[in-house]
Amino acid sequence: MTEPEHADSAFFTPDQHGRAALLEAVAAVVTSLEHVPDRPRSSLLPAELQALVTAIEICPENGVDFAEVAAIFGSVVWANGVVPTDPACVAHLHPPTLLASIATDVAVSATNQSMDSWDQAPVATEVELHLCAFLANRLGFGPAGTGVMTSGGTASNVLGITLARAAAAAAIGVDVGATGLPPEAATWRILSSDQAHFSVQRAAAQLGLGRSAVEIVPTDAAGAMDLSALDRALRDLDERGCRPIAIVGTAGTTDLGAIDPLDGIAERAKASGAWFHVDAAVAGSFIMSPVHAERLRGIASADSVTIDFHKLWWQPFNASALVVADGARFDLLRVRSSYLDRGDELEGMVNLVGRSLDTSRRFDAAKVVASLRTLGRRQFAAYLDAVLALANAAADQVAAQPGWRVLAPPNAAMVVFTEEDATADELRMVQQRLLARGEMVLGRTEIKGQPALKFTFMNPTVEVDAVPALVETVVAELRAIRR
Ligand SMILES: Cc1ncc(COP(=O)(O)O)c(C=O)c1O
């Protein structure tokens, strides 16, 4: 049997030798980042990228020196990604990431704790619980408030609505996890606005209720749920003999950033016995700013809240949390397993698998805690102000262009806009041509049937002075298409 060449240095060891080897490897990775372009993306198209990527032999018979591999990654992969730090990378809720988070993630990979059971993640479990308690506290929950980290806003919403379904079943004496949906489930409904994220529908589909169980509540011109429409929908459900099992409020819709009237929704959820879930994937970080937290009034009455750290908290993917007002609710989902979560562990050993839809899971709380502590709340709040200022400046700039208008004043980091005569196809061409040339990664969406373009400002270090050029680029591209 032949000995592998790098056997003793292929794995991280926490001794001096291992740390030195890791530092060298990380230095090679950091060097390779010199290939990241100083533009929103390279101008290579799918076939060209495919040719570059498929030329990389994935697992050669004999291994290649890591410095060489890192260099290839630099020139092929990091050179051809999108660049979320770039001022013209403005399509999605896709943030540049904090240095402290990136660096902490190295240790997360090196030490590889797994969040499913306490015996695989003793202190990491305590860090995740500490972070969830911090969120619960800032949301205004009582001492029973806690949560669990998930892979994203979609997963958090699905988990929140899964809890809502389990609570609805428990209220009629059914353990839905054990025996499946009872006949009454045919009448169960979830209410959310016409601007809510599609993951609400996905949850209904996955939970056996079907997408048709989601009752769509109309929104006002700003994109926030219309409370009188919610009242009508609840009355209508009552008349049809249907039961509202959950009302989903959105704190920051994906396009307009609209914040639903959470206090009004909370009242109605309570009166109708429905679970109140808030999807705060977009505007959840407003809890860190005394100015903006006020806009989330009512969130303290939620049963569950989605927080998405990999949006306006500037964290690397993946990092999200589902925060609940009463941690005991997680027991509704718990499945015991003989090897992982037996329930006979020593006092205080929490197995987070009992709260999660995942089993093995990365230690995502580490980077969040390390970076928030490094940044501090005041700077965090200043970053929020900065991205909102960019959105406001862009809205003003768009409105100043003859024929152009914003669909609604910005509520968060997004600006949705169009030109009065622009067709959907023209807007598509503007967005696709700028993307293909690597000049701008611009958003494109549709609000209540109205096609539109979208800027999403995620980089708080971009100067407001950079905004006019972005607007002019878009305006000039439409002109060029029409020429
Ligand atoms: C309001 C809202 N909720 C949920 C999500 C889904 O989040 P994720 O992409 O982290 O799954 C998004 C994504 O943009 C969103 O805007």
Polypeptide structure, described:
This protein has 483 residues and is an alpha/beta fold. It folds into 3 domains: 71 residues, PLP-dependent transferase-like; 263 residues, Aspartate Aminotransferase, domain 2; 106 residues, Aspartate Aminotransferase, domain 1 (Alpha-Beta Complex), CATH 3.90.1150. The chain has a 7-stranded mixed sheet with strand order 2-8-7-6-5-3-4, sandwiched between helices. Strands 1-11-12-10-9 form a 5-stranded mixed sheet. The longest helix is centred in the last third of the chain and has 23 residues. It is globular and about 60 Å long. The mean pLDDT is 97. It binds pyridoxal-5'-phosphate.
Largest sheet: 7 strands, mixed
Shape: globular
Bound molecules: pyridoxal-5'-phosphate
Structural class: alpha/beta
Secondary-structure element series: HHHEHHEHHEHEHEHEHEEHHEEHEEH
Tag the structure with descriptive keywords.
483 residues; alpha/beta; PLP-dependent transferase-like; Aspartate Aminotransferase, domain 2; Aspartate Aminotransferase, domain 1; 3 domains; seven-stranded mixed beta sheet; five-stranded mixed beta sheet; 15 helices; 12 strands; 13% strand; globular; binds pyridoxal-5'-phosphate
